[in-house]
Design goal:
5 helices; 321 residues; transmembrane helix; Kir_TM; Immunoglobulin-like; G protein-activated inward rectifier potassium channel 1; ion transport; potassium; alpha+beta
């Protein structure tokens, strides 16, 4: 079957684009910091470089302007002459003085004299403005670098979901694993069934979301993710798959979105990993191969069998039947 459009890709990216916002686009400017963090890295680096470059040129031009208006650029700097900034003769020297002041380098060759009140005011303004710009941009870059999005790439989901019997009950199952030795603290998993439906009143819902029970009442949704786990959804009278059979699975169109959330042990930040399964990726009458084995004093996980399944005898009928 031709692959159809997914709501959530296998890598967790949501295929949703917002358009025709109109006046609502101004909301992005009201939360400019979050907007800047959400931008791609190339735009972040461009804004970072442009902000500092423009700020440096503007402030250096202001120091040069003070020296020009006072006549420091046209008068010989003798022993008795007191300029606003010593040893500033042109724009490059004014730019170097600004960089030395902003970066607190202090070579000692250029300095403000006490007979320049406008220079003292500009120096205070430069210090405040520099602190604000540094806090904003460096804070934005730090938050963007520390985002745990890359941590989600080491959380694996099986390529397919399976339907088979477990404890004499028909269950929908998929597998999740953690590739790193660092644990996910308070890991919790949720599943959403996305399927179009029509209400009794005739309203068509193209992307109706329905919750799949993966152990809310029993606490099975709270995971101790130190080894690959098989997540199980029991198909019963409360399940949306109550009428699903092996034959009807071929004609169904749905998508199961899996959301795994937890706290990264090393950083303490919340991480979320997502994936999805369409009806083509649900295998009826299959079970996952074991990946755990006991060796000398430890348990070994064989991730080469993580996605592997094998067929098991399973009734082709729905639970309702």
């Amino acid at each position: 079957r031709r692959e159809r459009q997914r709501f959530v890709d296998k890598n967790g990216r949501c295929n949703v684009q917002h358009g025709n916002l109109g006046g609502e686009s101004s909301r992005y400017l009201s939360d400019f910091f979050t907007t800047l963090v959400d931008l791609k890295w190339r735009w972040n680096l461009l804004i970072f470089l442009l902000t500092y470059t423009v700020a440096w040129l503007v402030m250096a031009s202001m120091w040069w302007g003070i020296a020009y208006l006072r006549g420091d650029l046209h008068q010989a700097h003798g022993d008795t002459y007191s300029p606003c900034v010593a040893n500033v003769y042109n724009f490059p020297s004014a730019f170097l003085f600004f960089i030395e002041t902003e970066a607190t380098i202090g070579y000692g060759h250029r300095y403000i004299t006490e007979r320049c009140p406008e220079g003292i005011v500009l120096f205070l303004f430069q210090s405040l403005l520099g602190s604000v710009v540094d806090a904003f941009l460096i804070g934005c870059m730090f938050i963007k670098m520390s985002q745990p999005k890359k941590r989600a790439e080491t959380l694996m989901f099986s390529r397919a979901a399976v339907i088979s019997q477990r404890d004499a009950k028909l269950c929908l199952m998929f597998r999740v694993g953690n590739l790193r030795n660092s644990h996910m603290v308070s890991a919790q998993i949720r599943c959403k069934l996305i399927k179009s439906r029509q209400t009794p009143e005739g309203e068509f819902l193209p992307l109706d979301q329905c919750e799949l029970d993966v152990g809310f009442g029993t606490g099975a949704d709270q995971l101790f993710l130190v080894s690959p786990l098989t997540i199980c959804h029991e198909i019963n009278s409360e399940s949306p798959f109550f009428c699903l059979s092996q034959r009807s699975l071929r004609s169904e169109q749905f998508e199961i979105v899996v959301i795994l959330e937890g706290i990264v042990e090393t950083t303490g930040m919340t991480c979320q990993a997502r994936t999805s399964y369409t009806e083509d990726e649900v295998l009826w009458g299959h079970r996952f191969l074991p990946v755990m084995s006991l060796e000398d004093g430890f348990f070994r996980v064989d991730y080469s069998q993580f996605h592997a399944t094998f067929e098991v005898p399973t009734p082709p009928y729905s639970v309702k039947e």
